[in-house]
Amino acid sequence: xxxxxxxxxxxxxxxxxxxxxxxxxxxxxxxxxxxxxxxxxxxxxxxxxxxxxxxxxxxxxxxxxxxxxxxxxxxxxxxxxxxxxxxxxxxxxxxxxxxxxxxxxxxxxxxxxxxxxxxxxxxxxxxxxxxxxxxxxxxxxxxxxxxxxxxxxxxxxxxxxxxxxxxxxxxxxxxxxxxxxxxxxxxxxxxxxxxxxxxxxxxxxxxxxxxxxxxxxxxxxxxxxxxxxxxxxxxxxxxxxxxxxxxxxxxxxxxxxxxx
Amino acid sequence: xxxxxxxxxxxxxxxxxxxxxxxxxxxxxxxxxxxxxxxxxxxxxxxxxxxxxxxxxxxxxxxxxxxxxxxxxxxxxxxxxxxxxxxxxxxxxxxxxxxxxxxxxxxxxxxxxxxxxxxxxxxxxxxxxxxxxxxxxxxxxxxxxxxxxxxxxxxxxxxxxxxxxxxxxxxxxxxxxxxxxxxxxxxxxxxxxxxxxxxxxxxxxxxxxxxxxxxxxxxxxxxxxxxxxxxxxxxxxxxxxxxxxxxxxxxxxxxxxxxxxxxxxx
Lengths: 260, 266
What we know:
The structure holds 2 protein chains of 2 kinds.
Chain A (H helix, E strand, L loop, with lengths): L2 H14 L2 E3 L20 E8 L3 H14 L3 E8 L1 H9 L6 E3 L3 H5 L4 E10 L1 E5 L20 E4 L4 H13 L7 E3 L2 H9 L5 E5 H7 L4 E4 L8 E8 L5 H12 L1 H9 L6
Chain B lengths: L14 H22 L5 H4 L3 H34 L5 H13 L2 H12 L6 H8 L7 H26 L3 H8 L4 H29 L3 H6 L10 H11 L1 H21 L1 H4 L4
Helix pairs in contact in B: 1-12, 3-7, 3-9, 4-7, 7-9, 8-9, 9-12, 11-12
């Protein structure tokens, strides 16, 4: 078993337990600790779309370096699941969704701001052994395709892309978040899937990404908001401020997102 | 149990309070579910083709898993109960491990064994072009992996506690080994077998973690009721409450069928 397969196994297990403690390593404090003097402390709970996992964990480290008394706790899952959890009363400070629709489902979301964008890519096994070059190839019955479910933003965007390209696909599985699509391809169980460009970047050598023609590629927009009734509204606002700050935007761009 | 009537026990302080808390903890979620179940919509939801498809798939997969568990589990239970062989304890430990293993870990382990790149799965895929993940057969395999130990444990304990003298008597009367098994051993262990089968079926019907990680989620092929509950909770909560309630009713029915084992003590 190669190293990346073990890595994907860890990824699968990690996504299986939705709660992920943010801070594992001590990040050196940045010089720009300008807000460190203010009273940002305690747990800051951030519910974020699965595709944001790697970028947000990095931003969480920056946040904790700036606010040593605060701890960021992430809940990564499909945005539709997070929205349902918040509607059912989950105590979150910040909701970062992969589309506007799931943000609108959350009435408690206070004036959402769009902080990042993304595009779709076809994800295939490393080196593209099945020679997939465009969306049309996914209509081939011999190619095992996995998509995100229609409720998941990535699944809805993928449907839009396939419809725009006029391609009919018979997926073998509809996954509950985009990272599950990625892991099915990385583990070699599926030949192809449709994920975000940032997911392909996060998976490194485990997969290969195939660009999708621009006129078939819906632009994903990520809104984030502090929630009314947040247990730690000041902490939530500070996290949101970091997201839209030059430093937060740089981390997002490094992770393969576009920034407004 | 028989014997002299036991003296009335004195309830230590705290035990009563903690017991009430335990009962509340276990029953409040059920009340919550019942309170949100859309009773008026039940007839309509039960005619919904999507709900019926999920129900049908769940029944087919869980009954297949039960059949596979019985065919494979009963002989192994007999072997473990009756035959001394080196490594017996190890075999028993491995066979019941899925009872305590997180099911999602079971699903990942199944992928690494039977998936397209798995130990066996790769050979199978190279030879036939066919692989188990994303198929109904994959659901049956995942459910069997998780549920068979329940049958195994129950049947083995039935075989161990039965009175062996009936078998010995049959043997001295000249009955063949097959006749003894058929006319003495199996009837005497029938209650444990039935109990084990009911538990095994209920566990297979409720399987979630191994199924979603090994077989994926596709309506009509791999989306069983627990997976549908998980997904409907996001798009159509009333349907999720109803499907949950159907699973609850089935679970209560299994418990009633097993009442002699679990509800039998006065």
